[in-house]
Write a structure and sequence with these properties.
The chain contains 4 helices and 6 strands; from the N terminus they run αααββαββββ. It has 153 residues and is an alpha+beta fold. Keywords: Signal.
Length: 153
């Protein structure tokens, strides 16, 4: 009986480790998901963003100059002022607590200049809060702050 209980405890412990290891908040998986998010913003992929963003999603932009809900962001990416040449997140770190992950880093956004041959870059410090909900990661909140630009201000 004791052997049976011990074996059951070991199996349950291993199953818990496997379930935790399969979390969408694992660093490698979340970094990949976040890169897909950056690409979806660049391309205006409303279908991907609609699935990823939590219904309560909020994005606070530079110095609170703009606050966007999920609906507002989806509308904006459908009608962009200009489509970025590239978007890339880098210098990433992840903090996790239970079913919440906060990804911090820099996002470099390249946009074409009017000549169509050269581009300018803006760099933003960001914090993105992802929550695991019903086995899926949802992006709940974003805060960004512009920290550098190749443009002469």
């Amino acid at each position: 009986m004791k052997k049976h209980l011990l074996m059951t405890a070991c199996v349950m412990s291993l199953m818990g480790a496997v379930v935790q290891a399969q979390s969408c908040l694992d660093t490698e998986k979340l970094v990949k998901l976040d890169a897909e998010y950056e690409n979806a913003l660049r391309k205006g992929d409303v279908q991907f963003l609609d699935k990823l963003l939590a219904p309560e999603f909020q994005w606070v932009h530079n110095l609170a100059s703009l606050k966007e809900t999920k609906a507002q962001l989806l509308l904006r990416v459908q009608q962009p002022e200009e489509q970025p040449k590239a978007r890339r997140a880098h210098d990433l770190s992840l903090q996790r607590l239970d079913k919440t992950g906060v990804l911090q880093g820099l996002s470099s956004v390249e946009k074409w200049n009017p000549d169509g041959k050269t581009f300018r870059t803006s760099r933003y410090q960001f914090m993105r809060t992802y929550v695991e909900h019903k086995g899926e990661c949802k992006l709940l909140a974003v805060q960004t702050m512009k920290v550098w630009s190749s443009e002469a201000d």
